[in-house]
Every structure is written in C-alpha cells, then in structure tokens.
Queue: 2 jobs
Job 1
Amino acid sequence: MRIINTFELAVHGLKSKPSRTFLTLLGVAIGVAAVVIIASLGAGTQTLITDEISGLGADLVAVQPGGEPTSMADMANVLYSDSLTQDDIDAILKKKNVPHAVDATPFVLVPGNVTYYNESYVPQIYGTEVEVLSDMFDVYVEEGEFFGEGEIKEKAAVAVIGYKVNQELFGQVSGLGKRISINGKKFRVIGIYPKTGQKMFTDIDTLVIIPYTTAQTYLTGEDHFNEIWVRIDDSANARRTEQDIELTLRELHNLEENEDNDFVIRTPESIMEQVNTILLSLTIFLTAVVAVALVVGGIGIMNMMLVSVTERTREIGLRKAIGATDTDVLSQFLIEAMLLTFMGGAFGIVSGALISYGAGLLVLHFSSLNWTFQLPVAVSVGALVFSVVIGLVFGLYPARKASKKSPMEALRYE
C-alpha cells in the first residue's frame, strides 16, 4: 500500500509542473528516438544490401584489379589498376587451372558523356558482354537486340542504352538505329532497355553498354579490365574456385611467395560478410555517440529534480512530520526520476519508429530500392532500459538530498 501511495505522490509531483516535465522528458525522448532511428535504418540498409548482393547469384565470383584497399586513396588506385588483362581470362577459363569456371565476363569502365546533336548526357558507360550482363540483372531489351560475339570480335561501334539515356537524348522518340557519340566516337544504337530502375545498386535506366573490345580500342586506349565476373558450375564450389583463381593469377603475374596479391577475389558471401561488418561497426559507433545525448538528458533530469526538491521543501517537511521516513521520501523522488525517463524513452521509441517508417516510405517513393522497414525490438527495449537507468543514476542525488532534510528546518523554509 505504501508503494502505491508513493507512486501516486510521484505522479502528482510530475503533473504539478507539466511544462517542465515535458521539456525534461523531451531530452530523453530525442536521445532514444535517435538510437531507434539509427538501429532501424541500419537494419533496413543491411537487409537491402544483403538482398541486392544475393541477387547477383551465389554462382558468381568477382575478380577486381589491385590489392585490398585500406583507404580512399587505395580505392582510386584499385579502380585504375592494370593488373587484369585478357591473359587472365584465358588462364581462368582453362579447365586445368580453374575446373569449375564456366565463363568469364570482363568489364571496362568508360568515363565520359554521350551526345546526340545538341543533346548531352552523362550515363554509366561499360564495355562488356551485354547478354551476360542482362542475364545477371534479369532485364532484356525492349526494342532492338543485343550485340554478340561477332560484334565483340569485330570491335563494332554499337551500343545498348537505358530508358533514361534514350529520354535525355531523343525525348519521347525511340533512338533505335540512330548514331550517338561517346567521347567523340560514333556508335549505332541497336537496343534499348525498358524502364527498370535500380538492379543490384546499378541504375539500368542510365546504362550505356558497348563491346569491351571497342571500349578498349577506341575509348580507353588500355588493354586491362576494371573487373572480371567468373560464373561457376555450382555455388558449392565457390570457395574452391576462389582458391584456384588466386593460385592461377599469382602464377601468371609472377608474384613471389612474400608478395601480396595485385588483385582481389570476392564472392557474394564474402561481400555480405564485409558489408555486414561495416554496417554493424557504424551502427555501434553512431549508437554510442547518441548515447551521450541520453547522459546529457540525465544531467537535465538531475537539475530539474534539484529545483523540484528546493521548491517542495515544505512539502517534504510536512510529510516527514506526519511520519514519512527517509526511505519514503527517497523512493518518491527516485520514482519521479525513473518515471520521467521511462515516459521519455517510450515517447522516443514511438517517435523513432514513426520517423523511420516515414523515411522508408520516402525511399520507396523517390527511388526504386526495395526498402523494408524494420524496428529492432532488442535495441528499442535496450534504449528504454538504459533511459530508466539514467533516471535512477541521475535522480539518486536529488532524491537522497530530499530524504535527508530535517522536518523542522523544512517546515520553517520560506
């Protein structure tokens, strides 16, 4: 019965100053909401990336030039590294070297823009084998056709373009059969993709695909590749294939035993592990930073409780005069602090969930990403418990100060 009365007194104390109570719990609510938003967006991003990478297929192994990047400067060096050439593809496709490799597709990144008379656009330009790329993304031309092995061998000046590229250059008219200019070189449009949007982090609508031999000969002037995709016979052989490719390329590149690889091999599984590790580390870091806001909110609670203790000195004296013990007074003010942080935490969870859900709707509306709203229950409950602990820790000193007041001095307080 005494606990119920103490709780009722604590509620009455908070209701007596509604504006102050609201502003104080708002500080806690903002901190908890930030934690929930970060955790929710992090979980949604992790699911999105995992789904996108899974869409590549478990039977693919990607080989990239350069060593494992450790900084942004290394990323640039990797992008323009010349360690992968046609000789590497030929070696990979030899059954004695990589027995589980079915085919290998090179990629050449072509920086620049495309023009058609006075119209100009900056798309994503790749030199590759268009049929393999289309099978990978499960998207096929709506008009025209793909180029094949014949065009690749002949270094033909042909291109397959995305929906937006067609719109930017030709408006509502089909560009099929017309000649566009890529960095000054004329290409005939032989295929147009339908409106597709994002596929595995690639915007199909902004793509221009040309034969990789043509890209190397007329646009980049280089004989190396920016990436090679190796398709294997069975996803169960991915790890074995990764090892076979590494041994083959190290031998072909004449690398000594103590030298690092001048290439990087990635499987969908290894990419997901790396992405998940990065996202988890980032989420933990941001959550720790936001937790500081909760500590600041706790300081605000302690300040509010100290002011409240001073204002209610006569009330404390009267309670003690009619029989309330130090423990009763201590409990009352501790319950006030914890109740305050509990309400702030609950309000923060609801607010954070609504904001995260709204952000997810905006992502779905303004992009073609398959975003899924997620609310990590464990993180939400943890944030709520942490906020209550903050109330307990920072409310202890004011509550103890209130419990130690002398009833005679408190009743004389003006």
Job 2
Amino acid sequence: MYHLYCAIVLVIRILCIGNSFSWDAVEQELVPLCDAKGVQVEVHNLYYGGCSLQQHVQFLMRDTAAYSHRVCTNNAPRVVKDTISLRQALKDGKYDFISFQQASHDSGIRGSYEPWLSHLIDTVRAYQPEAQLCWLQTWAYSRDAGHPAYPRYHSNQQEMWDSIQSCTLYVLEKKHLMLIPCGDAIQRARKTRLGDTMCRDGYHLNYTYGRYTASCVWYEVVTGKDVRHNRYRNPNMTCAQQRIAQRVAHQAVRNNK
C-alpha cells in the first residue's frame, strides 16, 4: 500500500508598522538569511519616513493610504506596491509577527509613547488577534551624528542609548510585547573592532554589516534558530564582520529573552 504525503510549506508572515529604521532592519538581509536555512518568509514593511507613533495613529484614524508597501519574499526581488493604509494592511490575511517602533528621534522620550502606542496595539489586536506583537528597538545615533534631534540627548550616544533602554523597559513591562533588540545588537557591535561605524549617515545603518546585524536579530526572533549557524553573508562583508554581527545579534536576543 502506498501513502501519499502532502508537504505543507509554512510561511512566516511579518508586518512592520515602520519607517526607515524598519527598512534598514528587514528589507535587505532578512530574506537571504531565511533562504540560507530554507525558511519561507514574507515581509511586509509599511514605510513612511520618520513616522512616529503619534503619526501612525493619525494615519490610522483617517484611514490614510500613506505607506509605501514593500514586500520581500524568498527567491524574488523586493516589490514596492501601491500605497496602502494600515487598516488595509491589517485586513490582508493573517500575520505571524507584527512590529511597532518609535521614530528614532523620539525613541528615548517616554512622553512620546502614549496614548499612541496603546491605541495602535488595541487596533492591531482587534484585526489580528493571533499575531505575536513585537517591539522593534531602534538604535542610538553615532557619536558624531548630525541629526537635528540629537541635541535632545545632548548629542551623547550613551545618553541616547540609556534613554532608549528605559523606554524599552516601559514597553515590555506595560505592553507585554516581544522584543526585537536591534538597538542592543548595534550597541554591542560598537564595542567590538567594528567600532562606531554601524551607521552610514549617523543614524541609518550601513548597507553591509549594519543592516546585516539588525536582520540577524530579526532572524533569531522569528525563526528561533541560532544565527551563528547561518552561512549566508552579504557579499560585501568580510568573514570577520559576519562573525561579529552574528555574535552580537545572538547575544542581544539571548540577553533579552
């Protein structure tokens, strides 16, 4: 007697309610990392540059189709679809992971989080009750960053990072979201031989080991796999840079579980 088995390919669907920092973190390197281990993934990044929690809520309340809808999947080039509203995206099938984040300039300012984050969480849970809701922790700026909001933190990287950590703790304790500790990984990388070179302009990640490090964090969180066993490397990175990026990403995820 012959038995017919149907192979079911499970696809991890991710929705980022984001801005340029989610662009850095998921659009370039996450899919290749998943490809290397045969993980099927579908990443939807709702991009609006510099978007804060408050602005996300304003777009939501008006149902504004403000977002560039970027979709990244296995074995396919990134697709930029027509602009879309958050409500439309939430109706577009089920997601396994949905991430929130604060605009980088407000990421360490506690007063900028509420009531906007609570409103977003409540709305997303109403549409996607089974999704794992996540907090994408952003990173502090480079020491010499020229961002106009950097003086809020006295143009001091450590002060900005400490403020981001404080706000992250608030989100985890009050909102019970799963943490995607990209900021932690970037700060750890700055203490290695890579130094304070993770950003290309003082705040956005560089196109090689900067973005790769952030995506390694995402990879570990959504797959549960140790990224140190992943052989994919951005072709413009050295093996040493790969090892450092994977190590700090793994440490950040393990430290924040």
